[in-house]
Design a protein that fits this description.
single chain, Rossmann fold, 5 helices, 7 strands, 7-stranded mixed beta sheet, alpha/beta, about 220 residues
């Protein structure tokens, strides 16, 4: 969707790539990862990433969208806190808990693919929790008018579970939480809900673009 809207993406894999100068960045999408947000001793690049997010969002007011680990990174970078807990794996319901332009035109409760074992436990100053799920009280956060994050994976594609299950540590978690056929069951769940997942992803993308003033499609 980003490419189809005519935007140029620079993909940065932390731990391998250098962060680009913020003067060259219009918006940040902060994605997920297998590491925990507070594992700075194991992944020291987390320190630089948090500093980068804080400068971008808090001091420069850049548009941002955080997903899963990115949700937690935004929370910690802007003065909130995270801790182990709220573990969820599956296609589950998220319920809107406060009005937000980022969640406009979505059902009051909508399905998302969720996989996490860490949750946001304290909001950053001035942030608003705008959605919750059964086991995660702070599922989506709005920061001012140009930044938004959510604990789930709206970007899910049809092969995402197979890609994740190929990671040995992830396969162990799947088997532990969902049983030996966990990957197959989760794949079936994603396939069953995929039309709704795709439609909701499009709505979230359009909402975010409209709210931060970035085109969501190539101008006619």
């Amino acid at each position: 969707m980003i490419a189809d809207a005519g935007h140029r993406m620079t993909v940065v894999l932390l731990g391998r790539d250098s962060l680009p100068p913020l003067d060259d960045v219009d918006a940040l999408w902060i994605l997920g990862g297998a590491m925990d947000v507070f594992e700075e001793d194991i992944h020291p690049w987390l320190i630089d990433e948090k500093r980068y997010i804080r400068e971008a969002v808090q001091h420069r007011g850049l548009a941002a969208f955080g997903i899963c680990l990115g949700h937690q990174l935004m929370a910690e970078s802007l003065g909130g806190a995270c801790a182990k807990g709220g573990a969820e794996i599956g296609v589950l319901g998220v319920t809107i808990s406060a009005p937000s332009p980022f969640l406009a035109d979505l059902p009051p409760t909508f399905p998302v693919l969720i996989w996490h074992g860490v949750e946001v436990t304290a909001l950053p100053p001035g942030a608003t929790c705008v959605a919750t799920s059964e086991d995660c009280a702070v599922h989506a956060i709005q920061y001012g008018s140009r930044a938004f994050s959510m604990q789930s994976h709206p970007e899910v594609g049809p092969d995402v579970v197979a890609d994740w299950a190929a990671i040995p540590a992830a396969a162990v978690v799947l088997a532990d939480r969902l049983g030996p056929d966990g990957a197959d069951r989760l794949t079936e769940d994603v396939a069953r809900h995929f039309p709704d997942l795709q439609r909701n992803a499009r709505t979230l993308f359009d909402n975010w673009c409209r709210q931060v003033g970035i085109p969501s499609e190539v101008p006619a």
